Amino acid sequence: MKYISLLMGVLMIGLVSAYIAPTPDNVILTFDETTYFVPADVDNVILTLQIGLEDTCTYSGSGIWEVDCNDNCTITDDTDTGADNIIVSGSGYFNIQSNITTSFFAYTPGCQILNIPNDGKELRIKGG
Q1: In this predicted model, which residue has the larger pLDDT, 29 or 93?
Q2: pLDDT reading at 15 higher than 60
């Protein structure tokens, strides 16, 4: 899950920030057709909305597969990204318990790539 936090008029979504101007009476935040009111006379209000975003542990079937290593994914279904790439970033693990075939694979050092030795499951990088 990802979180949106509103703290003293600043909306933070991941790495994106935007200022929300309060009205004289309250701060109004509308997200996904839901409106949230924060009374102006309340100090140090933190409003956190929990929203579900796409599952980074499952390949969509097309395009680049961008995995958030913070999701600590265990891949159990055989996956072939065709000519598309797999990019794994963040901290945590990417556990390979199936056959994964891709044309390019990249990951950040904070992400552990796990695999059980001699289990017959592997990450295959196709030659160009």
Answers
A1: 93
A2: no
- Residue corresponding to tokens 């996956």: 79
Average pLDDT, the chain: 74
Please report which confidence band the pLDDT of residue 30 belongs to, taking 50, 70 and 90 as the band edges.
Answer: low
Residue 5 CA: distances (Å) to CA of 17, 27, 31, 38, 46: 10, 13, 12, 13, 7
Residue 100, judged by CB atoms within 10 A of its CB (0-12, 13-18, 19+), counts as buried
The Cα–Cα gap between 68 and 73 comes to 8
Q: How far is CA 20 from CA 17, 29, 66, in A?
A: 10, 8, 30
Domain ranges of the chain: 2-51, 65-125
Q: State which amino acid sits at residue 62.
A: S
